[in-house]
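Anyone else keep sequences and structure tokens together like this?

Example one:
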Amino acid sequence: MAKIAVIDTETTWNDKVMSIGVAIADSDTFELVDKRYYILMPHKFEGGMYEDALYVNNTKPNRECSRETAMSELKVFLAGHGVSKMFAYNAKFDWRHLPELGHLVWHDIMRLAAYRQHNTKIPAEADCFNTGRLKRDYGVESIYRMLSGNWRYKEYHNAMTDAIDELAIMKMLNHRVENYERIS
């Protein structure tokens, strides 16, 4: 079974990564196989827009440690699963914040999710550019609600829960991994 990874980060007010969530999935079924969640020290104490979500719903990190330790362990974790493809929603943000994972091939989930021609759940009346991309409401929360029909869904802005939700978006979109645009 080939595997992929979906990653999400949360940052501090000073644009430092304070948490990283990684979901490993089967590349054909998008079923979750494994996951890792790191809270980075000392950045968790710097504060950020979503600092209150670090432990939301009793989400426990695998480790609270330095960035260096987290990245070293993540590299081993990803290699252990044979992961060479990394996916993220608005991937350039996470890719820019995690140069240590630059050896992987990064792909953007949003580039399929936000376009009418790739997301059949975008309503006919939705306001889109000529390219087919939504003009607004194409973040994780809006797209998840649109695809699932669960209008009560709330994005927690916790790196681990968000990575799992972004994987769910990939599953609901039902595109092969090869269809996702490469950004690196």
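And example two:
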Amino acid sequence: MVKAIIFDFWGTLVENGVWSPIKQVRKILNIEVPFSEYVVRMERAMMAGKNKTLREAFEKVCNEFRIKADEQKIQDLIGMWNKSWMLARPYEEVESVLNGLNQKYTLILVSNTDPFSIDNVLEKFKLRDYFSHIFLSYNLGLLKTDEEFLRTALAKADLRPEDCILVGDSLQSDMLAAQNAGIKAILIDRKDRQDFKSKILNLRELENEL
């Protein structure tokens, strides 16, 4: 019996204000390693710790890839990242779906994220109140793909893997991470471009999968 639903944040509940900011960082810095490798290294450098400023966060990304970025590129990165969270919005069905599910299930939020964007968006749209627990990479010092991330989240929420379903938009960061933790996973694929056994196109379809 499902007791709790674990939601990813970016791309699942909230749409970034600009096209794929993580991909834009790669483009601005001209990083040429394979994308699957890039994402993990970039997120670990930027999102698995409490950086004091966005400049510090992006300097860590540059150091990770041994890039000496000039001031203009750093400013471009900061401006793009700020624009993304400032223009970010929940998908149109999110509020009503979360409000309904909140009456029946424990809702948990997880995310690979930096502190500069997610906290602002959570407050701006009053999303924090829907969740009994919020676990963020920069607080835990871990990424979702680290085995300890979901294990820690379940322990703190006093839940077992079989009590939960995880909903996310990434095959690697969400689906694989959930499966490795023994948690049933449901992919939300709003553009219907990915293959996965349990898949929805809109959060309104979620209750049919529970």
